Amino acid sequence: MKLPPLTTLRAFEAAARRTSFSLAAQELGMTxxxxxxxxxxxxxxxxxxxxxxxARGVRLTPAGKEFGATVSTALRQIASGAxxxxxxxxxxxxxxxxxPSVVAHFLTPRLPRFRALYPDIQVSISYSGAHHAIxxxxxxxxxxxxxxxxxxxxxxxxxxxxxPGYVAKFGPFDNVDSLLRAELLHDDTEAAxxxxxxxxxxxxxxxxxxxxxxxxxxxxxxxxxxxxxxxxTALLHDEIAExxxxxxxxxAADTExxxxxxxxxxxxxxxxxxxxxxxxxxxxxxx
Length: 287
Known about the structure:
Structural class: alpha/beta
Number of strands: 12
Family: Belongs to the LysR transcriptional regulatory family.
Protein name: HTH-type transcriptional regulator TtuA
GO biological process, one term: DNA-templated transcription
Largest sheet: 5 strands, mixed
Helix content: 40-55%
Shape: elongated
Function: Transcriptional regulator of the ttuABCDE tartrate utilization operon.
GO molecular function: DNA-binding transcription factor activity; sequence-specific DNA binding
Strand content: 15-25%
């Protein structure tokens, strides 16, 4: 069996997944120079370039994307097998604390794929947030900044969103002023819409629509054609792609916010598998 130098594969897999030598170096506890050298050694062994190198960073070549997927799958299988041997079946549970909105719109549609890859790992899902905080291996939250053990899964930029049926019945909404005659729905407070209109020099109308304390309730109302809401469009990627919801304007609010995946100080092998899979899913979905 003729294999590439095994020491190069872990560095390449991390660099391919992160699309960054420096982020891969942080993850692996080595320097970016060392990661770069491992990748060059692997490229020399294969006789093909795996990355395009630019002044602002690196980008996978087509060969790099193909080989990266192969190596990632192989390493995940090795890690899963090692976890079963080292920890036993009773340690194959990963505790994930997440916002309900992320569970409903991002995780739930994708979780069967993780289960198919790692049937021996049980994911225990609970609420995240100050009122529900419990010890967890991984936490998905929302905000402007995060800690050292966190990675941004996807943007939390919000844009005017509604059901296509609402546009057909009450539209067209072809400029910002046209929203002034629409039923505007609010997530928790009216502040988001106030800020969005203020960016265009417009005041929020006095006839405020319903306020929903839970984002999932707001999305249910939107799908029912009850109005227009400011929604994180990356989180609703599937609903928008499938035509259940439509984005009216590209101008966004909350441009500085993200959904973050935060890791515990000590990570088990199954938790590492889930963390890597969540990041890969977000990237592969184009979020």
